[in-house]
Amino acid sequence: MSEAELFRGLPRMNEILEDAGVRQWLENEGLGRDVAREAATHFLDALREGIAAGDLDGDGLARVLSDLKGGVERAARKIVDPYLRRVINATGVVVHTNLGRSPWSRPAAERVASLATGYLNLEYDLEGGERGNRDLPVTRYLSRLLPGHAAAVVNNNAAAVLLVLNTLAEGREVVVSRGQMVEIGGSFRIPEVMAKGFCRLREVGTTNRTRIDDFRAAIGPQTGLLLAVHPSNYRVVGFTQTVPLAELVALGQETSVPVVEDLGSGTLVDPVKWGIAGEPTVAQSLAAGVDLVTFSGDKLLGGPQAGFVVGKPEAVSKVRANPLYRALRLDKGLLLAIEATLRDYVAGRHDRIPTLAMLGATAKGLESRARELLGLLDEALEAFGVGLQIVQTESRVGGGAAPEVPLPSWGVAVVTSLAPNELARRLRGTDPPVIGRIVEDRLVLDVRTLLQGDTESLAAAFHEALAGSGAG
């Protein structure tokens, strides 16, 4: 059959829309005619492209047209189905920025689900019967975790830094080491944030060496604050020198200039017990005497996206009084999730926070999980002749924290007749999508970042990816 004949064999729009199967499906799904027409257009365009590319012959076209409902349904799904989907993270990167960073704890998710669909006392004092404090769900727990300090919370750490800079140093200079002029993901740059906060940058020292005298020499009548920035996702090594936070605080107290530290990730528990060095805790920074410290909620804290400002009560009060604070405040759903997360910290139930549980997983436990996954995949994929092997691998903290610290882990290496990149592509198209890591020309599934239910879903995903491929 010629190309022209194939094109003439395509159905008209009305034929598709009046097909009994298509009409019944649209009625069941409650989709309007506009969506149906758009989906049918995409369906026909795909057929035309297939014919023009030589991918559809007469028999192939006949098979497709025998199921008009299926063709329209697939096209409609691309229009109306939600974009965001659950994925299986088998990369071993715990705080994976591209995959939503820290997964919420089950209690946090359940609390949001149970209260977000109705009214709640978000800004209402039930005892006094009057307007209440919106941040109280968060601050009441943080005051127990960080005694003697006040807190404010906004929608992310970038917002927290912007708010603090604008509050304490608008129209004035902010002194920062040249070695801490960082850029993190999404082109978040400290100098640009300062400009938006209407502050003037005053760099001191060099990229690799900054001394306390560099800060001292820069302080003058226009100095608004001294800023320390945790390097997060990079390290300067070799011939280096940095100013200890305690020395910077002492200089600030001597000259009556506030000192602020941007911790970036931030953690409320000491990560050294997981073998992660170089990540100061929020409590350690506050103990050094800084006026304010900012940190994220969805990284090492293990909660939803948020930016915390914690420190001396008088400094936090100034931050709260800034009109920008209202513009950057959190939605009620995030407040509910943070409250549930911090409640587990107060109760000492760190194992209920997925990020902390993954970071704290033992080598023995990870090896056991890898062997369990191997057995399940081996049984499910026996017909495909897939090569499977238990391997020792390395996980990462992610989220800019401890970039140079590997976490010993275990995983399963998968080899098929498909090239690793092609196998990875197919797995991204399964339901749910699977994201692994290619190591030495093999796809590796790191079990550290597999959550409850993921192991069973992996077998189905591989079956879907390999079916009909001739892999094996």
Classified in CATH, the superfamily of the largest domain is Type I PLP-dependent aspartate aminotransferase-like (Major domain)
Number of domains: 3
How many strands, which pairing sense, and closed or not: the largest β-sheet? Answer: 7 strands, mixed
**Number of contiguous helices:** 20
What's the CATH topology label of the largest domain?
Answer: Aspartate Aminotransferase, domain 2
N-to-C terminal Cα separation, in Å?
35 Å
How much is the average pLDDT?
90
Q: Low-confidence stretches at least 5 residues in length (pLDDT < 50)?
A: none
Structural class designation: alpha/beta
E-strand count: 18
Apparent shape: globular
State the CATH architecture of the largest domain: 3-Layer(aba) Sandwich
Write down the CATH class of the largest domain: Alpha Beta
Oligomer: single chain
Radius of gyration: 28 Å
Question: Portion of residues in helices?
Answer: 40-55%
Strand order of the largest sheet: 5-13-12-11-10-6-9
How large a portion of the residues is in β-strands, by DSSP E? 15-25%
